[in-house]
Amino acid sequence: MSLKNQFGKKGWTPALMKSQKGKTFLITGATSGTGYEAARILLSKGATVVMLNRNPQKSEETIAAYKNEFGDNIDVSYITVDLGKQTSVKNAAAEILEKVTRIDALLCNGAIAQVPNQIVTEDGWESQLGVNYFGHFTLQALLYPLIEKSKGRIVTVGSMGYDMGLKTIKFDDLNWDKDYTANDAYSQSKLAQIMSIYELQNRLDKAGKKEVKAYACHPGSSRTSLISTSGSLLMKIIFGIMKLSPLTQPAKNGAYPELMCATEKDLDQTAFYGPTGRSNWVGPVGAHKLEPHAKDKIVAKKLWEISEKAIGLQWNL
Ligand SMILES: NC(=O)c1ccc[n+]([C@@H]2O[C@H](COP(=O)([O-])OP(=O)(O)OC[C@H]3O[C@@H](n4cnc5c(N)ncnc54)[C@H](OP(=O)(O)O)[C@@H]3O)[C@@H](O)[C@H]2O)c1
């Protein structure tokens, strides 16, 4: 399926982004990669940015780097959150609701990937599922009331990995106790992130809430710290070689889809946004094909229900 890019041949770029003065964006994982670049571009457009990072020292260094580039008058701060710990996510959400008065978009960007061995979080989930999916699911649920009040957006950064694993949710063995592989577990976590966005759209629609928007996107194949942070030695070597090829793009370009979903007016919530070039790894940003398993309503509904139970919270939709 080829879709005509609504933004023309070059696709969406930040050149299309107007001033974001007066708008507040929350971004998970802004200390490196696409999150760092997304925050940087938003700051360059005058936005208020609240970074949700796990490492306070890296947060300070990131702020110093932005101030070095844009001067001391930029409006950037951070709140510490470890997405892999539900208590940390819940505490961070409480701090956000105390300190932040509006959320124009919550960019769910932070992640770990290709973790070579099964690690179980303190909440009892396989680490990629715990960090990438459950961490964000809880954050979204707790911040939803303020996002709704702000007529804001939830933007989930998925991955083409959604289509590279089992292509469904392994409900009878969510943590891969039986046959863990780094790729299958990562793919499931990214599929779960995307599926929950389309399920959220269904639920918003049923609740008659038209002013909150939820988008799913991905950064293609971008030169970031993702594999070097959590991948195996073999994956580091493979991605190290890939980084030298035209099959990857700079981290900055990888930030464009989430920035577009956070700020652009005329988007289609039901679409999947990312690079539209080779294998959807690189190229102009726009809507592109999504395989039907990502929108399987029965699986998505079940995933939502077990997720609310697992985190001990219900969305107030
Ligand atoms: N790069 C790609 O080619 C690619 C492809 C498909 C999808 N993606 C997706 O793109 C998004 C951004 O990744 P990236 O490529 O920019 O990787 P990255 O450079 O490694 O950035 C990931 C960010 O997430 C943060 N993070 C990791 N674990 C966390 C936790 N437990 N709590 C809070 N923050 C945490 C990291 O913090 P630290 O600095 O403390 O480690 C870092 O700021 C991810 O959702 C990823 O799945 C990337």
TrEMBL record:
InterPro entries, sorted: NAD(P)-bd_dom_sf, SDR_fam
Highest taxon above the source species: Bacteria
Keywords: Oxidoreductase
SUPFAM superfamilies noted in UniProt: NAD(P)-binding Rossmann-fold domains
Stated name of the protein: SDR family NAD(P)-dependent oxidoreductase
Native source organism of the sequence: Flammeovirga kamogawensis
UniProt lineage: Bacteria, Pseudomonadati, Bacteroidota, Cytophagia, Cytophagales
